[in-house]
Amino acid sequence: MSSGTAAELPATTQREIWRIALPMLLSNLSIPLLGLVDTAVLGHLDEPQYLAAVAIGAMVFSTLYNGVNFLRMGTTGVAAQGFGRNDNAAIVRSLREATLVALAIAGFMLLLRPLILGSALGVVQPAANVDVETARYFNIRIWSAPATLATAVIVGWFLGLSNARVPLIITLVVNIANIILDVVLVVGLGMKTAGVAFATVSAEFLGLLVGAAFVVRESRHWPTALTWLDCARQADFRRYFSVNGNIFIRTLALMFTLFFMTAVGARLGTNVLAANAILLNLHHVVSYGLDALAHAAEAIVGKFEGRGDT
Predict the structure, then answer these.
(1) Taking Cα atoms as reference points, which of 101, 161, 171 lies closest to residue 298?
(2) Phi/psi class of residue 87: alpha, beta or left (left: φ > 0; alpha: ψ in -120 to 50)?
(3) Which residues contact 40 (CB under 8 A, 6 or more apart)?
(4) Which SS3 state, helix, strand or coil, does residue 218 take?
(5) What is the CB neighbour count within 10 angstroms for residue 229?
(6) How would you classify residue 190: left for phi > 0, otherwise alpha for psi between -120 and 50, otherwise beta?
(7) Which residue, among 78, 77, 107, has the nearest Cα to 93 in the 3D structure?
(8) Assessment of whether the complete model's pTM goes beyond 0.85
(9) In angstroms, what CA-CA distances link 87 with 90, 158, 289?
(10) Which residues, 6+ apart, have CB-to-CB distance to 23 below 8 Å?
(11) Tens digits of per-residue pLDDT, 64-87?
C-alpha cells in the first residue's frame, strides 16, 4: 500500500472497521438524543430557568467527564494491544488498572464538589434563579461520577477487544432508562431539574451493573491468576498518565471552547442560554456520530500494534 486510501485497504479490514463503527454510530447518536429529550421535557415548563440550569450543569459535567476521556480512549488502546498479542494478563490488567484510576478520580470529584460548582458558577455567572437550579442539579448528579467513569472504562475495554456490541447495549440501556425516568420524574412527578438529575444518576448506575455483568461473562475467556491487589502493586500509573497526557490536553482545549460558548450565552440572558442548549445538542449529534470511526480506528490500530504489524 503506497497510500492510505480506504479503497486500497484489504476487504477484511474494511469490514472490521464497519463492524465496530456501525454499532458505535448507533450508540453515540443515542447520547445527544438524551440531551434533546432533556431539552424537550424542560423546555415545556413554564419558565426557561430550568432548561438554562440543566444546560449549565450538563456543560460542567461534560467538561469534567470529557476531560478524563482518556479513561475510555486509553483503555481501548492498551486493551487492543494486549488482545493483538494474545496476552491475557495484559488484557485483564488494562481493565483493572483503568478502573482503579477511574474510581480515584471520581473520589476526588466528590471531595471537590463545592469547589467545582463554585468555580463553574463564578465563570458562567447566571441569573440568580438559574444559579439555584444549577446548584440543585449539580449536587445530585455529581454522585453518578463513580458509575459514569467506571462505565467509560468498561466501554473502552470492550472496544479494545473489537467488541462494539456490548458498548452499544450499555449505552442504549443507560439512555433509554434515562429518557423514561426523565418523563416519569419531570412530567409525572413535577421534580423539574432535580428529576433530570435523579434520572441520570439512576441510569448511570444501571449502566454500570449491565457493564459489570458483561465483564464477568467476558472474563471467563481471559483466564489469569492476576488479582486486583496484584494489579494495584504492578500498575505503572506514571506511564499511564504519560501515555494519556496528550489526550487530556486536547480534550481540555475542546471542552474549553464549548464551555466558553455556554458562559457567554449565560451573560447574554436566560433565553439566549436556553437557545444555545438546543444548538449545542444539534452540534453533539454530528460530533458523536463521527466519533464512531475514531472508536474503530483506536481498536484496530491498537490490535495491529500489539501484533507488531506496522
Answers:
(1) 161
(2) beta
(3) none
(4) helix
(5) 9
(6) left
(7) 78
(8) no
(9) 5, 15, 32
(10) 164, 165, 167, 168
(11) 887 787 888 888 888 888 888 888
